[in-house]
Amino acid sequence: MRNQEQNAGREVLDSVFSNHPLYRLISGACTKYERELTLSDIRMEDFFVETANCLDEVKEKDNDPAFQEEICEGMWDSTWSRLSRKSQSINKDEINLATCVVQTLLIVCLIFSEPHCYLVEILMRTAERNYSSRREEILSAVQKFMWRYGEDSLRAWVSDFMSVDNTSYLSEEIASALHGEEEIVEEETSDGKYPPVKVRMKILGELLKECDLWTNNHDRTKVARLMSNIIGTSYNNALNNLNNGLTLNEKQHGKDIDNVNKVLDSLKSDLQIKC
Description:
Layout: H1 2-17, H2 21-29, H3 31-34, H4 44-60, H5 68-86, H6 92-111, H7 117-127, H8 132-149, H9 152-161, H10 170-179, E1 188-189, E2 192-193, H11 197-210, H12 217-232, H13 235-243, H14 254-271
Antiparallel strand pairs: 1-2
């Protein structure tokens, strides 16, 4: 089943992102590492998805120096955790390698981004791992690919993507391609129609922020996983909408606030938190 989903996912990503500089780089330079991941069954498209997640996290906090150390400290561990959940078998060596591939791709992208404070931190954290020698090998493969095909398109994309005027998130684009419009589907209940799932999640994001859940990446990931199960949307959509929660008019969305409060109560119980 996992292989069928992977094949379908790759076909979609190949179609939608075939000309995307980062996707082209990963498919051209990192496919050979996919062949080493025989037990965990992590694929090239997982590299793309996880690199997007890391870039989005850096982008979100790029202008907040207080979060620099926190993000860089936890980047390897959060990537490792997400990749391990995608694996059919928890083979630590393979997941370490896959994590190293993702972190190296992140470093390459950040080379083209200003400022470079994250780059220095992540390089330091990665160098502390046992896979630092593989990082040099992966970095060399990526550089050779860029030398052959040019780096201008990747540089231009990273520069635009990380600019303050660009409010898009790559993981949202990927989720939209893989899952269609599921995040904006309305659900009908006995009380009538609720606002779209995306709106409900943003309201919930605000409520959860009041519970001070944003100080720990693990909590944020756990909340997103629970939300994806309870509300019925993809994990990436849950995490992105939590991170980008907006303050909405409570009168306008009164019915939905009641519904979200029920979900919040369930989450609070599962997480054993007080709000």
